[in-house]
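Entry 14. Structure prediction run on the chain below.
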Amino acid sequence: MPRTFDPISKHAKNYALSFDRLYNPIRDAMTTMPPLESRGNRPLQMSFEEHLKALIFFHLEEHVSAQHLLQALEEDDFARTWIAPKDGIKKSSFPEATNTREVEQFMYIFEHVQKQASHVLPDCHPDLGKLVAIDGSLIDATLSMQWADYRKGAKKAKTHIGFDLNRGIPRKIFSTNGKGAERPFVTQILSPGETGVTDRGYQCHKKFDLWQEEETQTFFLCRIKAKTVIEVYPVAPESIVFYDAIVLLGTAGSNQTKTPLLVVGYEVDNVKYWIATNRYDLSAEQVAAAYKLRWDIETFFGWWKRHLKVYHPIA
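Output returned:
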């Protein structure tokens, strides 16, 4: 049953409605989520649910620091009543919860919400199959995070995201240090029957062969470097597509693929794109359309960092 907010002010009710709109989709997951336990003898100062509510409120109100949040938890009617722990929160409790929070609980919540969204949102590109854009993005980390080595004097974490291009939502998320390799996450992100859509950083001829040799074939659609393709095949002059052939990539005796791939070259706004894929069922125009959708993950990263201000692991 929805909560009522009669005991608090009308101003606080407006906060409550916005907060509930974000929190309600995960309310049911709280009853089945793996319990968060203290790592030592000291009891938890904030439960996972209290911490998650504080983080949602942090973004909803666009707070700029933990201190700003803590002040609101003491002074704001809604925050004090519905966000802050019953016995209040000490100045050190929120940063402590942030630094020691468990990934298991956050991933459980993410998967719960992702499944809900997948059942509700329409499949916008059924003719192209299940497309998942794969890419990584850096997030600033604190100097105390030894695992996040990036370069001297800088700590960065990297998120590896699989983005459902059919429904426009993130599908899977993995984290590594800033130097973490991106290619190994292709097979971890993709499920059977899905096609990974990647940029040139994922081009690797040995990986292309390996993904096709596996018992459960990994489908991919990867932009490649122009110098990779040598032979030229004529195509219709009216089309944006100027190359459409099934060929071996690379140099014979050096880095050439064992298995031929469909390679499509097309031009948009004076920029030439070369795409290699093992989705032989797609036409050249469909390959071009599928790769164009990859830009959606870049749009997501921009929204994620600029709108939600996710520049630091606190987010």
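The radius of gyration is 24 Å.
Filed with the rest of this week's runs.
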